[in-house]
Amino acid sequence: VQLQASGGGLVQAGGSLRLSCAASGGTLSRLAMGWFRQAPGKEREFVAAVSVTGSRIDYADSAKGRFTISRDNAKNTGYLQMDSLKPEDTAVYYCASRPPYTTNYIYWGQGTQVTVSS
User: pLDDT by residue (tens digit) across 56-79?
Assistant: First the structure.
């Protein structure tokens, strides 16, 4: 499965962005999906995850109340809606997927840059 993340850009603090993760070469509908981010000089960190059916969703504390993860299995695409963005959200955002009932993400997208100006 190949994943393609898009939707990043430059936004002012308080603004919103919607990231997309399009899958090809396989069906995303059979995989759990997550979003991660990596800021300059920092380790990659978990942002949000959604189960295969969407029945279970998890967020990092930093994302709770501001970010919303979703998926459209018919479109083989996942999303991360980011609202009330802060400068500390600046990072490269990656989407990833894994088989259900596993913990290791084995498919990764190339990343999309999100920059939030103050």
Answer: 999 999 999 999 999 999 999 999
- Name the amino acid, one letter, at 36: F
Q: CA-CA distance, 16 to 40, in Å (whole number)?
A: 21
Instruction: Please report the pLDDT score of residue 26 as a whole number.
Output: 83
Cβ proximity of 101 and 25 under 8 Å: no
- Length in residues, the chain: 118
Q: Is residue 4 classed exposed, middle or buried when 0-12, 13-18 and 19+ CB atoms within 10 A define those classes?
A: middle
111 and 93 Cβ atoms separated by less than 8 Å = yes
The C-alpha atoms of residue 4 and residue 82 are separated, in whole angstroms, by 18
The residues near 108 (Cβ < 8 Å, ≥ 6 apart) are: 3, 94, 95, 96
- The residue type found at 105 is Y
Give CA–CA dist 92/32, Å, rounded. Answer: 20
DSSP assignment letter at 24: E
